[in-house]
Design goal:
Organism: Eiseniibacteriota bacterium
Protein name: TldD/PmbA family protein
Radius of gyration: 24 Å
Family: Belongs to the peptidase U62 family.
Pfam families: PmbA_TldD_1st, PmbA_TldD_2nd, PmbA_TldD_3rd
Number of domains: 2
Number of helices: 10
Largest sheet: 8 strands, mixed
Strand content: 35-45%
Distance between the termini: 62 Å
Keywords: Hydrolase, Metalloprotease, Protease
């Protein structure tokens, strides 16, 4: 593989590239789905291929292939340079990369149990056991269980001399129960919606989750939602449990601070951002004084935890929001200079060998506060506790949003009281984060994996994580459209 990588770099330089890199990626995936006591699907796939990225005449060029031959390596590298030269005829600005030290290193996701060494039979046995509990109530019409495992081996080599060999592994599992009765349908999921929980660890994730232990509660809550009232509209104090807050962070903090989006690269597809470049200089008040949000690609278990990004930049930790003040963008080597950074924050990643790297979200986490969870409930009498995302909507600038959840409870006497179905809440991003006045501590903090963040044209999927603990926001609009 290293010989093929060097051939690509030599070919690109000989054809006129000032810079070139090649990513050779071998990926393996396994997805298992059980539905209503039967196998819904078992999908296993393996892919291998390479992508060559170059700068020639000051512009980018890229080409890729799944044919791992010397002839194809030379052809693709030559094509990438030709594309760059053609692109330069429409050039508005010369591409310049912030400097990075040359590294030769190997990095592997730390795991205890390789998920690909665990039998499909063992995995199915657990999903069947959960399914049996979920369907013990006749009102549960659809029970779904999921497991997903992924491994990517990547070699990145550059004309600057970098040679980085990485192996990234992730595991995921979860389930949902859908109840139906008298024209009403409600769903509860565990441990989170949209497939459950995902982390960059091995099969120990699945063995360590209380999947079976929570199945009865999930089933009963799905059934209870059928007869629950809708959440009345009005302004209420709101507590978001951590998996819902993770998506709130994703949509109203993560995407708005992607620098390429800020500069307009996503404008035709997914919009721009209200976090314009002047807001960094002006110390924009993104949230209240207790809001501290970091990007951290070094934390154990994060889906965006790696040794190096696809620019060859070492994984980092930095503040996006510090004491409520906006403090930094997600950047790559190409755009880091725009806000005045001397180096990239290491956020450039691609979805496979046949896609160009772009700025992607990382492990973006709200740092824990000081509150005890039970004390927070007791201090929020009459407030609403939202759990488990069901839907979301946010405008083109990432300002106005609405989130729907699977369930919500009114808080009375420090406990969950009235259960509400189809609850939702609305807000404006900086107003919402400035209304934050209480964050639970380390003991309630949890890292949640989101394996399906979409961006770009052609579309790419990225795996990211968000860590947080239950958090309170004051005076939030809730229940719009429910009455």
């Amino acid at each position: 593989m290293k010989d093929l990588a060097q051939l690509a770099l030599d070919t690109a330089k000989a054809r006129g590239a000032g810079y070139a890199d090649i990513r050779i990626i071998e990926a393996r995936r396994e997805d298992i789905n059980v539905k209503n006591g039967a196998i819904g699907s078992i999908d296993e796939s393996e892919t291998i291929g390479f992508g060559v990225r170059v700068i020639a005449n000051g512009s980018w060029g890229f080409s890729s292939s799944s044919q791992m031959t010397r002839e194809e390596i030379e052809r693709v590298a030559t094509e990438a340079v030709a594309i760059a030269k053609a692109s330069s005829t429409l050039q508005e600005e010369v591409v310049r990369l912030t400097p990075e030290p040359t590294v030769r290193e190997r990095w592997v996701t730390p795991i205890m149990v390789d998920p690909f060494n665990v039998s499909v039979a063992e995995k199915l046995d657990l999903l069947y056991a959960v399914d049996e509990v979920l369907r013990k109530d006749e009102k549960i019409k659809v029970a779904m269980g999921y497991m997903s495992f992924f491994r990517e081996k990547q070699l990145l080599a550059t004309t600057e001399g970098a040679e980085i060999d990485q192996t990234l592994i992730r595991s995921g599992a979860g389930y949902s129960a859908t109840a139906v009765d008298k024209g009403e349908m409600q769903r509860r999921s565990y441990p989170a919606s949209f497939g459950g929980q995902y982390m960059s660890i091995g099969y120990e994730l699945v063995r360590g989750m209380p999947l079976l232990e929570n199945a009865e509660r999930v089933r009963d809550e799905a059934v209870a939602l059928l007869s629950a009232p809708p959440l009345p509209s009005g302004k209420r104090d709101v507590i978001l449990e951590s998996s819902q807050l993770a998506l709130q962070i994703h949509e109203s903090v993560g995407h708005p601070v992607e620098l390429d989006r800020v500069l307009g690269s996503e404008a035709n597809f997914a919009g721009r951002s209200f976090v314009t470049v002047d807001k960094l200089k002006d110390r924009f008040k993104y949230g209240s004084d207790i809001v501290n949000i970091v990007s951290d690609c070094t934390m154990p278990g994060g889906l965006a935890t790696f040794g190096y990004d696809d620019d060859g930049v070492r994984a980092q930790r930095f503040h996006i929001i510090q004491d409520g003040i906006f403090s930094g963008y997600l950047t790559n080597r190409e755009l880091a200079h725009v806000p005045g950074n001397e180096r990239s924050h290491g956020c450039n990643r691609a979805d496979g060998f046949n896609r160009l790297p772009m700025i992607r979200q990382t492990n973006i986490c709200l740092l824990p506060g000081t509150w005890n969870y039970d004390d927070l409930l007791s201090d929020t009498d009459g407030g609403i506790l939202f759990e488990t995302n069901k839907s979301w909507s946010i405008d083109q600038l990432r300002l106005n949003f609405q989130f729907g959840c699977e369930a919500a409870w009114e808080i009375k006497g420090g406990k969950k009281a009235t259960l509400y179905k189809n609850p939702n809440y609305q807000g404006i991003t900086p107003e919402f984060w400035n209304s934050c006045d209480a964050i639970c501590g380390d003991d309630a903090w949890q890292l949640w994996g989101i394996p399906n963040c979409g961006k770009g044209q052609p579309g790419q999927t990225a795996e990211v994580s968000h860590g947080c603990s239950p958090t309170r926001f004051r005076g939030v609009e809730v229940g719009i459209g429910n009455t």
